[in-house]
Amino acid sequence: MKRIVLITLLVFATTAKSQNASQGDKVKQSHSLSLDQAISHALTNNYSAINASRDIETAKQKKWETTAAGLPQINGVVDYTNNFELQKSLVPAEFFGGNKGEFAEVAFGTKHNMNARVSLSQLLFDGSYIVALQASKTYLKFYENAKHKTDTDIKEMTINSYGNVLLAEESIAILKKNKSTLEKTLFDTKETFKNGLIEEENVEQLQITLSSVNSNLKNTIRLLEIANKMLKINLGIDIDDELILTDKLDNLTITNLDLAFSQKGFVTSENVNYQMALNFEEQRQLEYKLQRSKALPTLSATMNFGYNAFGDQFQFFEQNQKWLNYSNVGVSLNIPIFSSLARSSRTQQAKIALDQAKTQLNETEQRLKLQYANAKSEYEFSIEEYATAKSNLNLAERIEKKQQIKFTEGLSSSFDFSEAQRQLFSTQQQYLQSMVNIINKKASLEKVINK
């Protein structure tokens, strides 16, 4: 008996636990990604990328909706009318044996009428429909280009946010190392001060420097958390999931050091912004054609087949109800003749909009050439800046080390030593930032040339 009770309790506990798990917090996942893996993940799971793909699916459905407008349309209709008070007419009374000159009230029709019919309609010719078919293809192309633009933006954002996380991680590592070195130096300086060999100012100067490093370290740790969350949003993963970056900042920098890459030619037509501007011009061209097509006649055909039934009693579903069938075929030709120049006005407006689109396309081309020149210049400068920062870091490390030896031996003041430390700390950050700049500037250049 006890065993049965124990099993029952275990089953109940397991069920309750599974329900709590399904209703409670989501299970955190762990992601370990290189930069290339992060880009691939973002292009699939980023929120904007998902909606951009949905826009393409919507455009495909819109294209078919436009196509279907020119295909056969079949509709079934059932009409029921209850004439609870029949309309009356006046007829001469003499028709029914009355006096001449008098009129009698006569009600025509039945109380219940029902009509069931099926109609088939087919558009035979409409210039605006032909233009609409062309426009639906342009409409789809626009959203495909928009998806491509979204992907390039996501790729650049992912690279930037990935680099920001690595920058924060490297900064924290350097600040911790500087803090450890400073704490040891401060301890030795305090001991020297206790022995009366140096002034208290030397100790205070080091304390100021250490406080500054501690403050920067705490702030950088907070920035790392924010940068990590920003990267997660760009990747389209839960903000509370664990994220591990497998690439290192120095390796990515070396990978992106390609001065020959910036020397490649720039083809404006391959840029997605140019393609979208061209797509916009095509839309305006089709709108102009649409207005012109409205001066053409339209031709359509219809076919109807149905049954009518009448009665003073509602007996339409009984077997003895008599139904009267009918059918007809019709053709409709609509010829625009005169619109008081309204069509001409709309056509001229569309022509002006087309000219504006052509001007915008030319402007986009010129701006893209400028954007390419600027991105190319910034990328080349980032490579030069990296080389300079690397050289300056070696010099700053040597200067700081010499000043530390002089300070320890009493040959240099605490002010000179602290100044050398601050210069080293600043140069370290400049060096890290120069590495991130190379990665980001190359991403910007790749975005312009559509690589």
Task: Chart the SSEs and their pairings.
Blueprint: H1 2-23, E1 30-33, H2 35-45, H3 47-68, E2 73-82, E3 88-92, E4 103-107, E5 112-125, H4 127-194, H5 200-235, E6 242-245, H6 249-255, H7 272-293, E7 298-311, E8 324-334, H8 342-408, H9 414-449
Parallel strand pairs: 1-6
Antiparallel strand pairs: 2-5, 3-4, 5-7, 7-8
How would you sum up this structure, described in words?
With 451 residues, this protein is α+β, with helices and mostly antiparallel strands. The protein folds into 2 domains: 28-70 and 126-296 and 338-449, Outer membrane efflux proteins (OEP), CATH 1.20.1600; 81-124 and 306-335. Helices cover 65% and strands 15% of the residues. The protein is built from 9 helices and 8 strands. It has helices at residues 2-23, 35-45, 47-68, 127-194, 200-235, 249-255, 272-293, 342-408, 414-449; strands spanning 30-33, 73-82, 88-92, 103-107, 112-125, 242-245, 298-311, 324-334. It has a 4-stranded antiparallel sheet, with no helix packed on it. Strands 1-6 form a two-stranded parallel ribbon. Strands 3-4 form a two-stranded antiparallel ribbon. Helix 2 crosses helix 3 (47-68), helix 7 runs antiparallel to helix 8 and helix 8 packs antiparallel against helix 9. The protein is elongated.
